[in-house]
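USER:
I would value a second opinion on how I read folds in C-alpha coordinate form. Give me a protein, with the fold worked out from its sequence. Write it directly below this note and I will take it from there.

ASSISTANT:
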Amino acid sequence: MGQRMGEWQTDADRPDIVVTGNSVMDLLYRVRSLPKWSGAVPASDVAVLPGGKGFNQALAAARLDARVHLLSAAGQDPWGTQLKESLIAQGVDVSHLLLREGAVTSPVAVLVGPGGETSFIGWKQPPLLRLRDADIEAARPVVNGADMLMATLEIHPAALLRLFRIAAESGVPVMLNPGPAPDPADLPEICELLPYVDVLVPNREEASLLAHGVGPGEPGSAEELAEALHGNGIRVVCVTDADRGCAVASREGTFRSPGFPSRVRDTNGASDAFCSALAVSMVAGEGLRAAASYANAAGALTVRTVGSSSALPDHRSIRQLISASESASVETGRGDLDE
Protein backbone atom coordinates (compact mmCIF):
# COMPACT_ATOMS: atom_id res chain seq x y z
CA MET A 1 0.00 0.00 0.00
CA GLY A 2 1.07 3.56 -0.47
CA GLN A 3 2.67 5.54 2.32
CA ARG A 4 -0.44 7.70 2.72
CA MET A 5 -2.47 4.88 4.22
CA GLY A 6 -2.56 5.44 7.97
CA GLU A 7 -0.13 8.35 7.71
CA TRP A 8 -2.38 11.27 6.78
CA GLN A 9 -0.40 14.49 6.49
CA THR A 10 -3.27 16.61 7.82
CA ASP A 11 -6.63 15.87 9.42
CA ALA A 12 -8.28 17.04 6.21
CA ASP A 13 -6.56 14.18 4.34
CA ARG A 14 -8.28 11.51 6.42
CA PRO A 15 -11.11 9.66 4.67
CA ASP A 16 -14.54 10.85 5.77
CA ILE A 17 -16.93 7.91 5.87
CA VAL A 18 -20.59 7.60 6.88
CA VAL A 19 -21.70 4.12 7.94
CA THR A 20 -25.27 2.91 8.42
CA GLY A 21 -26.36 -0.44 9.84
CA ASN A 22 -27.36 -2.11 13.08
CA SER A 23 -25.81 -1.65 16.52
CA VAL A 24 -26.52 -4.68 18.72
CA MET A 25 -25.05 -6.71 21.55
CA ASP A 26 -23.53 -10.05 20.55
CA LEU A 27 -23.96 -12.92 23.01
CA LEU A 28 -21.16 -15.27 21.94
CA TYR A 29 -21.18 -18.96 22.80
CA ARG A 30 -18.31 -21.23 21.75
CA VAL A 31 -19.83 -24.67 21.13
CA ARG A 32 -18.80 -27.98 19.57
CA SER A 33 -22.11 -28.47 17.76
CA LEU A 34 -25.52 -26.93 17.33
CA PRO A 35 -28.22 -28.06 19.79
CA LYS A 36 -31.04 -30.32 18.64
CA TRP A 37 -34.64 -29.43 19.36
CA SER A 38 -35.36 -30.05 23.05
CA GLY A 39 -31.64 -30.62 23.55
CA ALA A 40 -28.74 -28.64 25.00
CA VAL A 41 -25.03 -28.28 24.31
CA PRO A 42 -22.40 -26.89 26.70
CA ALA A 43 -20.55 -23.68 25.83
CA SER A 44 -16.82 -23.62 26.55
CA ASP A 45 -16.72 -19.82 26.42
CA VAL A 46 -19.34 -17.08 26.73
CA ALA A 47 -18.89 -13.36 26.09
CA VAL A 48 -21.11 -10.30 25.69
CA LEU A 49 -19.66 -7.79 23.20
CA PRO A 50 -20.89 -4.88 21.07
CA GLY A 51 -21.63 -5.83 17.48
CA GLY A 52 -23.86 -5.45 14.45
CA LYS A 53 -22.62 -4.82 10.93
CA GLY A 54 -23.08 -1.07 11.19
CA PHE A 55 -21.25 -0.88 14.52
CA ASN A 56 -18.45 -3.17 13.33
CA GLN A 57 -17.87 -1.33 10.06
CA ALA A 58 -17.80 2.05 11.80
CA LEU A 59 -15.34 0.76 14.39
CA ALA A 60 -13.18 -0.93 11.74
CA ALA A 61 -12.93 2.25 9.65
CA ALA A 62 -12.08 4.31 12.74
CA ARG A 63 -9.26 1.90 13.62
CA LEU A 64 -7.87 2.63 10.17
CA ASP A 65 -7.85 6.32 11.16
CA ALA A 66 -10.80 7.42 9.05
CA ARG A 67 -13.22 10.09 10.27
CA VAL A 68 -16.39 8.08 10.80
CA HIS A 69 -20.04 8.97 11.41
CA LEU A 70 -22.44 6.16 12.34
CA LEU A 71 -26.13 6.42 11.47
CA SER A 72 -27.85 3.76 13.57
CA ALA A 73 -30.33 3.21 16.40
CA ALA A 74 -30.27 1.30 19.68
CA GLY A 75 -32.22 1.31 22.89
CA GLN A 76 -31.86 3.93 25.59
CA ASP A 77 -30.64 1.26 28.01
CA PRO A 78 -27.33 0.04 29.49
CA TRP A 79 -26.42 -1.85 26.30
CA GLY A 80 -27.12 1.19 24.15
CA THR A 81 -24.94 3.29 26.43
CA GLN A 82 -22.14 0.70 26.18
CA LEU A 83 -22.34 0.74 22.38
CA LYS A 84 -22.12 4.53 22.34
CA GLU A 85 -19.20 4.67 24.76
CA SER A 86 -17.28 2.02 22.79
CA LEU A 87 -17.59 4.08 19.62
CA ILE A 88 -16.63 7.34 21.32
CA ALA A 89 -13.51 5.66 22.71
CA GLN A 90 -12.42 4.90 19.11
CA GLY A 91 -13.18 8.40 17.84
CA VAL A 92 -16.41 7.61 15.97
CA ASP A 93 -18.84 10.52 15.67
CA VAL A 94 -22.01 9.32 17.42
CA SER A 95 -24.14 12.40 16.73
CA HIS A 96 -26.43 10.18 14.65
CA LEU A 97 -26.39 7.08 16.87
CA LEU A 98 -29.94 7.34 18.14
CA LEU A 99 -30.76 5.84 21.56
CA ARG A 100 -34.53 5.40 21.45
CA GLU A 101 -36.53 5.82 24.62
CA GLY A 102 -38.69 2.76 25.27
CA ALA A 103 -36.68 0.55 22.88
CA VAL A 104 -34.51 -2.41 23.86
CA THR A 105 -31.09 -2.77 22.25
CA SER A 106 -31.23 -5.88 20.08
CA PRO A 107 -29.38 -8.98 21.35
CA VAL A 108 -27.93 -11.46 18.85
CA ALA A 109 -26.86 -14.96 19.87
CA VAL A 110 -23.67 -15.95 18.04
CA LEU A 111 -22.77 -19.64 18.12
CA VAL A 112 -19.09 -20.15 17.28
CA GLY A 113 -18.13 -23.67 16.18
CA PRO A 114 -14.81 -25.45 16.68
CA GLY A 115 -13.54 -24.32 13.26
CA GLY A 116 -14.57 -20.70 13.78
CA GLU A 117 -17.76 -21.05 11.74
CA THR A 118 -20.68 -19.03 13.06
CA SER A 119 -24.46 -19.24 13.28
CA PHE A 120 -26.68 -16.38 14.41
CA ILE A 121 -29.98 -16.11 16.23
CA GLY A 122 -31.38 -12.60 16.07
CA TRP A 123 -34.58 -10.76 15.36
CA LYS A 124 -35.61 -8.48 12.58
CA GLN A 125 -35.15 -4.82 13.31
CA PRO A 126 -38.10 -3.81 15.55
CA PRO A 127 -40.13 -0.75 14.48
CA LEU A 128 -38.74 1.46 17.26
CA LEU A 129 -35.18 0.92 16.01
CA ARG A 130 -35.84 1.60 12.33
CA LEU A 131 -34.45 4.77 10.81
CA ARG A 132 -37.14 7.34 10.13
CA ASP A 133 -37.28 9.95 7.38
CA ALA A 134 -36.44 12.64 9.94
CA ASP A 135 -33.34 10.69 11.05
CA ILE A 136 -32.10 10.47 7.47
CA GLU A 137 -32.76 14.14 6.78
CA ALA A 138 -30.87 15.08 9.94
CA ALA A 139 -27.87 13.14 8.62
CA ARG A 140 -27.95 14.87 5.22
CA PRO A 141 -25.08 17.30 6.03
CA VAL A 142 -22.64 14.55 7.04
CA VAL A 143 -23.61 12.43 4.01
CA ASN A 144 -23.15 15.41 1.69
CA GLY A 145 -19.65 15.98 3.10
CA ALA A 146 -18.53 12.34 3.06
CA ASP A 147 -16.01 10.61 0.81
CA MET A 148 -18.07 7.42 0.90
CA LEU A 149 -21.35 6.10 2.32
CA MET A 150 -21.23 2.49 3.55
CA ALA A 151 -24.48 0.57 4.05
CA THR A 152 -25.81 -2.91 4.83
CA LEU A 153 -29.18 -4.60 4.43
CA GLU A 154 -29.70 -4.46 8.17
CA ILE A 155 -31.43 -1.16 7.30
CA HIS A 156 -34.82 -1.35 5.59
CA PRO A 157 -34.51 -0.89 1.79
CA ALA A 158 -36.93 2.08 1.77
CA ALA A 159 -34.71 3.97 4.23
CA LEU A 160 -31.60 3.03 2.25
CA LEU A 161 -33.16 4.27 -0.97
CA ARG A 162 -33.79 7.68 0.58
CA LEU A 163 -30.23 7.78 1.93
CA PHE A 164 -28.70 6.67 -1.39
CA ARG A 165 -30.56 9.40 -3.23
CA ILE A 166 -29.10 12.00 -0.88
CA ALA A 167 -25.62 10.61 -1.59
CA ALA A 168 -26.27 10.66 -5.34
CA GLU A 169 -27.30 14.33 -5.22
CA SER A 170 -23.84 15.21 -3.83
CA GLY A 171 -21.86 12.73 -5.91
CA VAL A 172 -20.91 10.69 -2.83
CA PRO A 173 -20.04 7.08 -3.78
CA VAL A 174 -22.05 4.32 -2.11
CA MET A 175 -20.72 0.95 -0.94
CA LEU A 176 -23.36 -1.70 -0.22
CA ASN A 177 -22.57 -4.87 1.70
CA PRO A 178 -25.81 -6.82 1.01
CA GLY A 179 -25.86 -8.74 4.26
CA PRO A 180 -27.42 -10.41 6.05
CA ALA A 181 -28.34 -12.52 3.02
CA PRO A 182 -31.63 -11.10 1.74
CA ASP A 183 -34.90 -12.99 1.61
CA PRO A 184 -35.72 -13.69 -2.06
CA ALA A 185 -39.09 -12.00 -1.45
CA ASP A 186 -37.24 -8.73 -0.76
CA LEU A 187 -35.22 -8.81 -3.98
CA PRO A 188 -37.49 -6.38 -5.93
CA GLU A 189 -36.95 -3.67 -3.29
CA ILE A 190 -33.24 -4.40 -3.07
CA CYS A 191 -32.84 -4.24 -6.85
CA GLU A 192 -34.17 -0.66 -6.70
CA LEU A 193 -31.08 0.21 -4.67
CA LEU A 194 -28.52 -1.18 -7.12
CA PRO A 195 -28.53 1.73 -9.63
CA TYR A 196 -27.24 3.94 -6.78
CA VAL A 197 -24.47 1.54 -5.72
CA ASP A 198 -20.90 2.26 -6.82
CA VAL A 199 -19.18 -0.56 -4.92
CA LEU A 200 -21.01 -3.82 -4.17
CA VAL A 201 -19.41 -6.26 -1.70
CA PRO A 202 -21.43 -9.49 -1.40
CA ASN A 203 -20.30 -12.96 -0.41
CA ARG A 204 -20.97 -15.76 -2.89
CA GLU A 205 -24.43 -16.59 -1.51
CA GLU A 206 -25.49 -12.94 -1.58
CA ALA A 207 -23.99 -12.46 -5.04
CA SER A 208 -25.87 -15.48 -6.38
CA LEU A 209 -29.15 -14.15 -4.98
CA LEU A 210 -28.62 -10.73 -6.55
CA ALA A 211 -27.34 -12.05 -9.88
CA HIS A 212 -29.66 -15.03 -10.38
CA GLY A 213 -32.38 -14.80 -7.72
CA VAL A 214 -31.22 -18.07 -6.14
CA GLY A 215 -28.94 -19.07 -3.27
CA PRO A 216 -25.80 -21.21 -3.04
CA GLY A 217 -27.36 -24.07 -5.02
CA GLU A 218 -26.59 -22.05 -8.15
CA PRO A 219 -23.05 -22.96 -9.26
CA GLY A 220 -20.65 -20.28 -10.31
CA SER A 221 -17.28 -18.98 -9.32
CA ALA A 222 -16.76 -15.71 -7.47
CA GLU A 223 -15.32 -14.29 -10.70
CA GLU A 224 -18.40 -15.26 -12.72
CA LEU A 225 -20.73 -13.74 -10.13
CA ALA A 226 -18.68 -10.54 -9.96
CA GLU A 227 -18.75 -10.21 -13.75
CA ALA A 228 -22.50 -10.85 -13.88
CA LEU A 229 -23.25 -8.12 -11.34
CA HIS A 230 -20.79 -5.69 -12.92
CA GLY A 231 -22.48 -6.36 -16.23
CA ASN A 232 -25.70 -5.05 -14.68
CA GLY A 233 -24.12 -1.61 -14.36
CA ILE A 234 -22.43 -1.63 -10.94
CA ARG A 235 -19.07 0.13 -11.24
CA VAL A 236 -17.08 -2.14 -8.91
CA VAL A 237 -18.17 -5.57 -7.64
CA CYS A 238 -16.06 -7.40 -5.09
CA VAL A 239 -17.31 -10.90 -4.23
CA THR A 240 -15.75 -12.23 -1.04
CA ASP A 241 -14.90 -15.92 -1.06
CA ALA A 242 -13.93 -16.83 2.54
CA ASP A 243 -10.27 -17.83 2.92
CA ARG A 244 -9.85 -17.87 -0.86
CA GLY A 245 -9.85 -14.07 -0.95
CA CYS A 246 -12.12 -12.20 -3.33
CA ALA A 247 -12.91 -11.63 -6.98
CA VAL A 248 -13.18 -8.09 -8.32
CA ALA A 249 -14.89 -6.96 -11.53
CA SER A 250 -14.75 -3.42 -12.88
CA ARG A 251 -14.25 -1.66 -16.19
CA GLU A 252 -10.54 -2.47 -15.76
CA GLY A 253 -11.35 -6.19 -15.99
CA THR A 254 -11.77 -9.07 -13.56
CA PHE A 255 -9.15 -10.48 -11.22
CA ARG A 256 -8.80 -12.74 -8.19
CA SER A 257 -7.10 -11.35 -5.08
CA PRO A 258 -5.88 -14.31 -2.98
CA GLY A 259 -6.55 -14.58 0.73
CA PHE A 260 -3.98 -14.81 3.52
CA PRO A 261 -3.35 -17.96 5.57
CA SER A 262 -4.96 -17.61 8.98
CA ARG A 263 -5.80 -19.80 11.95
CA VAL A 264 -9.56 -19.32 12.20
CA ARG A 265 -11.16 -18.89 15.62
CA ASP A 266 -14.26 -16.83 14.76
CA THR A 267 -15.41 -15.63 11.34
CA ASN A 268 -17.85 -13.12 12.85
CA GLY A 269 -16.96 -9.58 11.74
CA ALA A 270 -14.49 -10.58 9.02
CA SER A 271 -16.69 -9.23 6.22
CA ASP A 272 -17.13 -5.96 8.13
CA ALA A 273 -13.38 -5.51 8.52
CA PHE A 274 -12.99 -6.34 4.82
CA CYS A 275 -15.55 -3.73 3.73
CA SER A 276 -14.12 -0.95 5.88
CA ALA A 277 -10.55 -1.65 4.79
CA LEU A 278 -11.66 -1.69 1.14
CA ALA A 279 -13.53 1.61 1.58
CA VAL A 280 -10.69 3.42 3.37
CA SER A 281 -8.16 2.17 0.83
CA MET A 282 -10.26 3.19 -2.18
CA VAL A 283 -10.94 6.65 -0.72
CA ALA A 284 -7.19 7.01 -0.16
CA GLY A 285 -6.70 6.56 -3.91
CA GLU A 286 -5.24 3.07 -3.94
CA GLY A 287 -5.81 0.92 -7.01
CA LEU A 288 -8.32 -1.93 -6.87
CA ARG A 289 -5.66 -4.65 -6.63
CA ALA A 290 -3.93 -2.99 -3.69
CA ALA A 291 -7.26 -2.18 -2.03
CA ALA A 292 -8.50 -5.77 -2.39
CA SER A 293 -5.28 -7.17 -0.89
CA TYR A 294 -5.50 -4.72 2.01
CA ALA A 295 -9.12 -5.76 2.63
CA ASN A 296 -8.24 -9.47 2.46
CA ALA A 297 -5.54 -8.92 5.08
CA ALA A 298 -8.01 -7.11 7.35
CA GLY A 299 -10.44 -10.02 7.10
CA ALA A 300 -7.72 -12.61 7.75
CA LEU A 301 -6.62 -10.83 10.91
CA THR A 302 -10.18 -10.54 12.22
CA VAL A 303 -10.87 -14.29 12.19
CA ARG A 304 -7.97 -14.97 14.56
CA THR A 305 -9.81 -13.57 17.61
CA VAL A 306 -13.19 -14.48 19.12
CA GLY A 307 -15.61 -11.55 19.02
CA SER A 308 -16.16 -9.27 16.05
CA SER A 309 -15.56 -5.81 17.52
CA SER A 310 -12.61 -6.91 19.66
CA ALA A 311 -10.82 -8.42 16.64
CA LEU A 312 -10.86 -5.54 14.18
CA PRO A 313 -7.28 -4.71 13.10
CA ASP A 314 -5.44 -1.40 12.72
CA HIS A 315 -3.36 -0.24 9.76
CA ARG A 316 -0.05 -1.35 11.26
CA SER A 317 -1.27 -4.94 11.77
CA ILE A 318 -2.56 -5.12 8.22
CA ARG A 319 0.71 -3.81 6.80
CA GLN A 320 2.69 -6.31 8.88
CA LEU A 321 0.64 -9.22 7.52
CA ILE A 322 1.03 -8.04 3.92
CA SER A 323 4.79 -7.55 4.37
CA ALA A 324 5.18 -10.97 6.02
CA SER A 325 3.25 -12.58 3.17
CA GLU A 326 5.38 -10.85 0.55
CA SER A 327 8.57 -11.95 2.32
CA ALA A 328 7.35 -15.53 2.68
CA SER A 329 6.42 -15.68 -1.00
CA VAL A 330 9.90 -14.59 -2.04
CA GLU A 331 11.88 -16.74 0.41
CA THR A 332 9.96 -19.98 0.98
CA GLY A 333 6.61 -19.79 -0.76
CA ARG A 334 3.66 -19.50 1.61
CA GLY A 335 4.52 -20.26 5.24
CA ASP A 336 2.41 -20.30 8.41
CA LEU A 337 2.02 -16.61 9.13
CA ASP A 338 0.27 -17.18 12.46
CA GLU A 339 3.39 -18.05 14.37
